[in-house]
Specification:
globular; single chain; mainly alpha; 16 helices; 412 residues
Length: 412
């Protein structure tokens, strides 16, 4: 690596640390990582309905001690959340927000993600459509409309229209909650699981509050160990033999997901939270060492906790975090240090508007349900199905790019 390249990258990092609120200070490798993850998320979500493809292109069953390519996509979501936390705080501090305002933002974002996840899960199962005044497909579509109204950003000259849209979204969401009917065992909406967005919301809340209290890497690493220990206790004899322990230790999945977010947070601090005097090669060495430690921890824990995305086992968490840290280091080297950046424009739409990118396939699926159509993708098999799913994901990114031009975004 040349001295000029190191100085250029060093200058970029220094500018970012001092003023992350400016457009030029965005870390392109983080944006690329985020965009690639959401692009792959669309593909793997559609691949579940494709037959005649390798099992390594689908999620592994819960009791199989293995992980496939799709099993790393959700952890990548969590890892990126962790990497973004320091930048989010730095931006708000630079904008002059108070401690109370930053805390309100943290709780508001977590609440939005958890709420969306809760509604989306109840649209998937646990409902009794025969007792509802509208079909579950229409109910689901209207929830997405409510999400957009509540948490969308619109380009209107009159700010009153924005406030009216949020009020309308809130009223719509409350109305949909009122008309929902569950199965005989659960008459109303239920916490079956929190959904992907909800799980991200809880992990984001836990780790953001911890980072709000301390920015010391040593404390964050200790918290990572505590979360792993909590998971171990929740699967120990204490959880089985003692009722109160079972209640206290019932949040093992949230603790497991928090370890991945914390790993992303630590990785972010390794690369971007160092003092100006820390050489960039040293940061890469520390990131590599961190990835190797995560891998070793996963290997050591695997005999006790087999790899399983469904059970969110420590081995799955640490293998996934290790892979994410390694992948990001490669992206950072290629994009921000070597300057190989042109290709990142392909994933830019999803990087700057990830939530809309995530919701659009669900909106399309709800429309299919209302019309009574089956997804044409799920009628394909083999390589043709894989190609079609990839093309579909590309079309979604194009649609998001168009929406971005009209400032149609979702933020918290």
């Amino acid at each position: 690596m040349s001295t000029t390249s190191i100085e250029k990258a060093y200058s970029m990092i220094s500018a970012t640390a001092n003023n992350v609120s400016t457009q030029s200070s965005r870390i392109l490798s983080i944006d690329a990582f985020r965009g690639i993850t959401f692009f792959l998320m669309i593909i793997v979500n559609e691949l579940h309905g494709i037959s005649g493809i390798s099992p390594w292109l689908k999620h592994m069953p819960a009791d199989v001690d293995a992980m496939s390519f799709p099993d790393v996509v959700f952890p990548a979501f969590l890892f990126i959340v962790g990497m973004s936390i320091p930048f989010g705080r730095k931006t708000r501090e630079h904008q002059g927000e108070s401690t109370l305002q930053i805390l309100r933002h943290i709780f508001g974002r977590a609440f939005a993600l958890i709420t969306m996840g809760f509604f989306m899960v109840n649209a998937e199962s646990g409902f009794d459509e025969s007792k509802m005044v509208i079909s579950i497909a229409l109910w689901s579509l209207l929830t997405y409309v409510a999400f957009i109204l509540l948490w969308g950003v619109y380009r209107f000259d009159n700010p009153l229209w924005n406030r009216f849209g949020k009020l309308l979204g809130l009223m719509l969401l409350l109305s949909l909650a009122m008309i929902y009917r569950g199965d005989p065992n659960t008459p109303w909406m239920s916490i079956q699981w929190w959904g992907i967005l909800g799980l991200i919301g809880w992990a984001y809340l836990l780790c953001s509050l911890l980072f709000f209290c301390t920015q010391r890497t040593s404390v964050l690493l200790a918290a990572l160990l505590v979360c792993t220990g909590y998971y171990a206790l929740s699967h120990s004899a204490l959880n089985v033999q003692h009722r109160w322990f079972a209640i206290v230790l019932s949040q093992d999945a949230h603790a497991a997901h928090a370890t991945i977010v914390l790993s992303g947070l630590v990785c972010s601090l390794i690369f971007f939270g160092k003092e100006k005097s820390t050489p960039i090669p040293t940061r890469f060495f520390q990131a590599t060492l961190f990835a190797l430690i995560l891998f070793a921890a996963a290997t050591a824990l695997r005999p006790y906790y087999a790899i399983s995305k469904i059970y969110a086992t420590p081995s799955w968490c640490f293998y996934s975090a290790s892979a994410c840290a390694s992948f990001f280091a490669i992206l950072y080297y290629l994009i921000d240090i070597k300057g190989i950046q042109r290709w990142t424009v392909l994933f830019k739409p999803a990087a700057i508007n990830p939530l809309v990118c995530y919701l659009i396939p669900f909106i399309i699926e709800a429309i299919y349900g209302i019309i009574g159509w089956l997804s044409p993708l799920h009628q394909l098999t083999g390589v043709l199905g894989i190609i079609a799913c990839t093309a579909y994901a590309a079309l979604i990114l194009i649609l998001v790019a168009v929406l971005n031009r009209f400032n149609f975004k979702m933020r918290f």
